[in-house]
Specification:
The protein has 314 residues and is α/β, with parallel strands linked by helices. It is built from twelve helices and twelve strands. The strands form three sheets. It has a six-stranded parallel beta sheet. A hairpin with a 2-residue loop joins strand 1 and strand 2. The structure holds zinc ion (ZN).
Length: 314
């Protein structure tokens, strides 16, 4: 039996059920909620709870919330949303892409101490513990500042045993660099999940990542630049290679976010692109996989086995 940290306390991995491994209940920037709540729209909590209740009714049991402190993580909001919706939520520690200039000269161990505290003691003095660690790099590759964070995340992982999720830029194969650094830190790559892996259709690269031992977050749906169908064909190729239990489909969806006036990203436009919310994978992607010939046995365990294996360190 493996127990992980959810925002409502310890959770047995047997209870994870249908799990979306990379989502955001609320995502903005550090301090947005206490200072500029109007940017996040009206009736925030009601909107979040309604959205999560729909997911729960549709069969989603657990989500991993990938919102770090710099993305505006609010641990009390996550706990209340989980309590009221019935969806298990796992919160994360670590850092996203924009490492602040004030971190200049900070050592990996200094950051690792902070991340470790969020896993072992709790976040913001609440006692609510992070269940996953996150580091991020994008099309610039691993910048020197991000390397410090990545090493810190690797060290916090080694101290706590909590697994690692990596925001990555798969079209540039940035994962190779990230894994190299974690290997230097002595991290077993079976405890690592390479996220945004379905932003590429390069099956050879993705299979290479899987061969290194890590899990893949096929976690952008519907996503941009690569069509949803192309994403699903890529996933089908990996399933055919025997990797169904090491891939984690998800959406990278933001329920509450900074409301922009730009009509390209209005609520209406978001709804037009994905009227299914957190059920897009279940209702659209799984149907595509069935039509491509993937068996029901595999489809029905796709968001179950991968997440559970990842948390259990299989
Ligand atoms: Zn995300």
């Amino acid at each position: 039996m493996t127990t992980i940290n959810s925002v409502l306390g310890p959770l047995d991995t047997a209870e994870l059920g249908f799990t979306l491994m990379h989502e955001h209940v609320m995502c903005g920037f550090a301090g947005v909620l206490p200072n500029y709540p109007e940017l996040l729209g009206d009736n925030m909590m009601e909107v979040a709870v309604d959205d999560l209740k729909k997911a729960k009714a549709g069969g989603v049991d657990t989500i991993v919330d990938a919102t770090t402190l710099d993305l505006g993580r609010d641990i009390n909001l996550l706990a209340e949303a989980s309590r009221r919706s019935g969806v298990n939520i796992v919160a994360c520690s670590g850092w996203w892409l924009d490492v602040p200039p004030f971190f200049a000269g900070i050592a990996p161990d200094q950051l690792a101490d902070l991340f470790t505290r969020e896993v072992e003691e709790g976040i913001s003095g609440t006692g609510i513990k992070a269940g996953i660690l996150k580091s991020a790099s994008d099309l610039m590759g691993v910048t020197p500042e991000q390397e410090v964070v990545l090493r810190a995340v690797g060290r916090a992982h080694l101290r706590t045993g909590v697994p690692v999720m990596l925001h990555s830029y798969s079209p540039g194969q940035v994962g190779k660099q990230q894994l190299e650094i974690l290997k230097e830190e002595g991290v077993d790559l079976r405890r690592v999940k390479m996220d945004h892996s379905n932003d590429t259709t390069d099956v050879e690269y993705l299979a290479w990542l899987l061969e290194q031992g890590c899990y893949l977050g096929m976690d952008r749906y519907p996503g941009r630049n690569v069509s949803p169908l192309a994403r699903t064909k890529t996933m089908k190729a990996l399933i055919d290679m025997g990797y169904a239990d090491r891939i984690c489909p998800s959406h990278d969806r933001l329920v509450l976010r900074v409301m922009a006036d730009n009509p390209m990203i209005s609520e209406e436009e978001r709804l037009r692109i994905n009227p299914h919310g957190f059920l897009y994978v279940k209702e659209v992607v799984f149907q595509q996989l069935r039509e491509m010939g993937v068996s029901e046995d595999i489809v029905s365990t796709l968001c179950v086995n991968g997440p559970r294996n990842f948390f259990e360190g299989v």
